Amino acid sequence: MQIRKILTFVDEARSEAGHGAEPPLRKVASVAVVQNPFAGKYQEDLSSLVDASAAIGRELSEIALNLLKPFPVESYGKGAVIGLAGEQEHGVALLTTVFGNVIRDTAGGGKAWISSMTKRASPGATIDVPVAHKDALYVRSHYDGITITLPDAPLPDEIAVICVYVNRGRLNARVGGLSKDRIQGLDGLI
After folding, report:
1. pLDDT (tens place) for every residue of the chain, 190 residues total
2. Residue 125 forms beta bridges with which residues?
3. Buried (b) or exposed (e) across 99-130, using 16+ Cβ within 10 A?
4. If we measure between CA atoms, which residue out of 138, 127, 134 comes closest to residue 168?
């Protein structure tokens, strides 16, 4: 798929409620704005989008990984904003396991499924992409997200595909649940 543009976002929090953070909480997102070949028409078979998502995922995850450096990936997420001439299903097709496995592999592995969000919107859209720990969904300290605004995307016949990496849990997380040092990593849950 042809990429019209790449957008990147870095959100780094260094303190919260007067408490400094070491390391800081860095959330990064990389976005590929691509042409939607099915905009304005119904297409039963969306496998071409699924197949194309691997290459998009490789490029986006490498960009996101570089934005996160020098920190390792602890959480991840994915998303898509579909232009108004497309269907939400077109964005979902670009975020299936094919895309997810590339994000997971680039992050150094992961057992948990990857949280996601898709929606249809016009240029200037804002989307909240959820994230969770890459090895265990029940690590409550890592339930978070990143809010990004796409200044001139997606056009009606485009899709903005999003990869998100985060280096740690929320600042001052203290509501209990499984801690990251107790992850078993067997089933992606605990």
Report:
1. 899 999 999 999 999 999 999 999 999 999 999 999 999 999 999 999 999 999 999 999 999 999 999 999 999 999 999 999 999 999 999 999 999 999 999 999 999 999 999 999 999 999 999 999 999 999 999 999 999 999 999 999 999 999 999 999 999 999 998 889 888 887 888 8
2. none
3. bbebbbebbeebbbebbbbbebbebebebebb
4. 134
**Burial category of 25 from C-beta neighbours within 10 Å (exposed 0-12, middle 13-18, buried 19 and up):** buried
The token duo for 119 is 């929606």
User: What is the Cα–Cα distance from 79 to 58, expressed in whole angstroms?
Assistant: 15
Q: Which fold has domain 3-182?
A: 60s Ribosomal Protein L30; Chain: A; (3.30.1330)
The domain ranges of the chain are: 3-182
CA distance 145 to 148: 10
Q: How many CA atoms lie within 13 A of 1 on its CB side?
A: 29
pTM, rounded to two decimals: 0.96
DSSP state of 181: G
